[in-house]
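Minutes, project check-in
Item: structure for the 142-residue chain
Input as provided by the requester:
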Amino acid sequence: MTRGLLADVNVAGHIAYLRALFDTLDLWAFLADKGLVVATFLDLGIAPNVNDRFLWTYCQENGWLLFTDNRNDDCHDSLKATLDECWEEGCLPVVTLFSKARFERDGTYRELVAEHVAEILLRASEGEYRTYPRIYVPLSRR
């Protein structure tokens, strides 16, 4: 079961913009109809300094797609190390914002990110997108 999107502390401030864009772009009704929500660490009582391995495991066990800009790669418990060691087909993907800086300054880019995140959430709730450990948004559509 997919509960929704959990914003990493590095993008917690951005999630309000994303949620507002879901409304503006008439995407929220589709997400809400599936029972999907958007949450932050604060909403779920998760410590802001939790390690990546714990966070990824928490997301898998509780049905959250983790939304991040890019977590560190400096230790055994990094997100990259965790994905390399633990991810297998069927797990929920990590949704990674390709350019946080561009999201902050470019409205068209923000809208594209919102559309793609909504698509990933909806399709993941239907069992798709479980063959990728990490999905960068916006999606590349070549």
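Outcome recorded: The chain has one domain: 4-137.
No further action items on this chain.
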